[in-house]
Amino acid sequence: MAYFDSASSAPLHPVARQALLASLDEGWADPARLYREGRRARILLDAAREAAASAVGCRPDELVFTSSGTRAVHRGIAGALAGRRRVGAHLVVSAVEHSSVLHAAESHESAGGTVTEVGVDRTGRVAPDAYEKALRADTALACLQSANHEVGTEQPVADVAQVCGEAGVPLLVDAAQSLGWGPVAGDWSLLTASAHKWGGPPGVGMLAVRKGVRFAPQGPADERESGRAPGFENIPAVVAAAASLRAVQQEAVAEAARLRALVDRIRTRVPRLVPDVEVVGDPLRRLPHLVTFSCLYVDGETLLHALDRAGFSVSSGSSCTSSTLTPSHVLRAMGVLSEGNVRVSLPPGTAEEDLERFLSVLPDTVRDVRERLGAPSAAAANGATATAPTTAGAEEAALTVDSLGKRCPIPVIELAKVIGDVPVGAVVAVLSDDEAARLDIPAWCEMREQEYVGERAGDGGTAYLVRRRA
Amino acid sequence: MAYFDSASSAPLHPVARQALLASLDEGWADPARLYREGRRARILLDAAREAAASAVGCRPDELVFTSSGTRAVHRGIAGALAGRRRVGAHLVVSAVEHSSVLHAAESHESAGGTVTEVGVDRTGRVAPDAYEKALRADTALACLQSANHEVGTEQPVADVAQVCGEAGVPLLVDAAQSLGWGPVAGDWSLLTASAHKWGGPPGVGMLAVRKGVRFAPQGPADERESGRAPGFENIPAVVAAAASLRAVQQEAVAEAARLRALVDRIRTRVPRLVPDVEVVGDPLRRLPHLVTFSCLYVDGETLLHALDRAGFSVSSGSSCTSSTLTPSHVLRAMGVLSEGNVRVSLPPGTAEEDLERFLSVLPDTVRDVRERLGAPSAAAANGATATAPTTAGAEEAALTVDSLGKRCPIPVIELAKVIGDVPVGAVVAVLSDDEAARLDIPAWCEMREQEYVGERAGDGGTAYLVRRRA
Question: Looking at this predicted complex, what is its ipTM?
Answer without folding.
Answer: 0.91
